[in-house]
Every structure is written in structure tokens, then in C-alpha cells.
Design goal:
The complex is a heterodimer.
Chain A lengths: L3 E2 L4 E5 L4 E7 L4 E9 L6 E7 L4 E4 L2 E6 L4 E6 L8 E9 L7 E3 L3 E6 L1
Chain B lengths: L3 E4 L2 E4 L5 E7 L5 E8 L3 E10 L2 E4 L7 E6 L2 E6 L8 E8 L10 E2 L3 E5 L1
Parallel strand pairs in B: 2-11
Antiparallel strand pairs in B: 1-3, 3-8, 4-5, 4-9, 5-6, 7-8, 9-10, 9-11
The chains are: A mainly beta, B mainly beta.
Chain lengths: 114, 115
């Protein structure tokens, strides 16, 4: 069972516009959510995270929104830049003894066109 | 120099061969992980280790084994490789002292092809 799901395999946006990447989860025991960015031939790199006790976290051009009732989170990138073109993974951490184990979504390929 | 290194970066092998993928880190982190990435499936956890004496199975440990030789080294072995183990493999580390989301730091990956 896929506990973290990114339903859009790809997204294409114009430079300067907003990119919105979505993620849904099923496990209400997740207490932290993270977004990672991955360029080809490199490992994923951490982008931004949010605790389950918050509904928004912002870092520069990147904002993550969490809707616990809908078990949905989204990553907004404003304005989008060509260098943002990458695969974005949503990840969730389980509460309790699972410690720092993360469950990842399938990823969304973002392409920002100049 | 990279904080998390993986060797080899690319490997082609044949069905039935034993393969070892190695991971080293200079971040001083106590926790280390092995993931595999397959198209359309994201990253799936194979094994993880919270310290040298603590090894745990992840979601997809069948067909794999690991060894935590030291705090800085965590190796993944395929005892008898099969074609459906063809994938991109990532090692990651994290620090238990870091609060919050326990951000994980990833190596550059090893592309393994089993013919």
C-alpha cells in the first residue's frame, strides 16, 4: 500500500509562474513531512519540511502547505526558475519508534520552460 | 569533498553474481540508510541502521543484506543478483540529535544493472 502518493508524474510551467506540486498521504501517524529535489545523476537533496502541528512553512521561493483533514500537502514555488527543473519527492516521517524512517512518494518531474 | 560517497557509481553484472555496494560518510552521523529508486515507484527503504550494533529491515529487504563496519561505513550486498534488482541505489545518513524532520543526506547513487 502506497502511504505517500504523488499523483502527477510530471508538471510543466513557464518561467516566472507558480509551480504547485501535490502529495497525499494515508497514515495519520505521520508527524513530519519533507520535500526533496533530485537532479539527474545526483542524490536527492532536502528542500523544505513541515511539522504536522503547522499548516504552512515558507523558505524563500518555496512554501509548503499542510491540510491535515484532507491528508494533503503541497509545495509552491514562486516564481519558478529553469534551475528548478528536477524531480521532486514528497516524504513523510512516522511518529514513535520508527524514528527517522521516511516514506517517499513516487516523485514529480517539474520542467520550467524559459 | 562529498560528505556521503558511494562506490561504485555504476556497475553491470550478471544474474547470480554477488555484488557489494559501499557507502562512506564524513558527516559524523549515527544513522545510515539504503534505498532503491525505480521509475514510478519513488525511493523505497531496503535497510537502515541507527548505530553500529543496530540493523533493521526496511520495506524491501528480501534478496539484500547489509553490514555496518563502522559508524562511517554501511555496505549493501546482493548475494545472488537477479534482473529485477536493476535500479538506482542510494545511501543516506541522518543525525539522531537533530530534531524536527530528521533530514536525511543522500549520496550520489549507484546505478546497478543485472543482466
Amino acid at each position: 500500500d502506497q502511504q505517500v502518493k504523488q499523483n502527477s508524474p510530471s508538471l510543466s510551467v513557464q518561467e516566472g509562474r507558480i509551480s504547485i506540486l501535490n502529495c497525499d498521504y494515508t497514515n495519520s501517524m505521520f508527524d513530519y513531512f519533507l520535500w526533496y529535489k533530485k537532479y539527474p545523476a545526483e542524490g536527492p537533496t532536502f528542500l523544505i519540511s513541515i511539522s504536522s502541528i503547522k499548516d504552512k512553512n515558507e523558505d524563500g521561493r518555496f512554501t509548503v502547505f499542510l491540510n491535515k483533514s484532507a491528508k494533503h500537502l503541497s509545495l509552491h514555488i514562486v516564481p519558478s526558475q529553469p534551475g528548478d527543473s528536477a524531480v521532486y519527492f514528497c516524504a513523510a516521517r512516522g511518529r514513535g519508534t520508527s524514528g527517522s524512517r521516511l516514506t517517499f512518494g513516487e516523485g514529480t518531474q517539474l520542467t520550467v520552460n524559459p | 569533498d562529498a560528505d556521503v560517497t558511494q562506490t561504485p557509481r555504476n556497475r553491470i553484472t550478471k544474474t547470480g553474481k554477488r555484488i557489494m555496494l559501499e557507502c562512506s560518510q564524513t558527516k559524523g552521523h549515527d544513522r545510515m540508510y539504503w534505498y532503491r529508486q525505480d521509475p514510478g515507484l519513488g525511493l523505497r527503504l531496503i535497510y537502515y541502521s541507527f548505530d553500529v550494533k543496530d540493523i533493521n529491515k526496511g520495506e524491501i529487504s528480501d534478496g539484500y543484506s547489509v553490514s555496518r563496519q563502522a559508524q562511517a561505513k554501511f555496505s549493501l550486498s546482493l548475494e545472488s543478483a537477479i534482473p529485477n534488482q536493476t535500479a538506482l541505489y542510494f545511501c543516506a545518513t541522518s543525525d539522531r540529535r537533530q530534531g524536527g524532520g530528521n533530514e536525511q543526506f543522500f549520496g550520489p547513487g549507484t546505478r546497478l544493472t543485472v543482466l
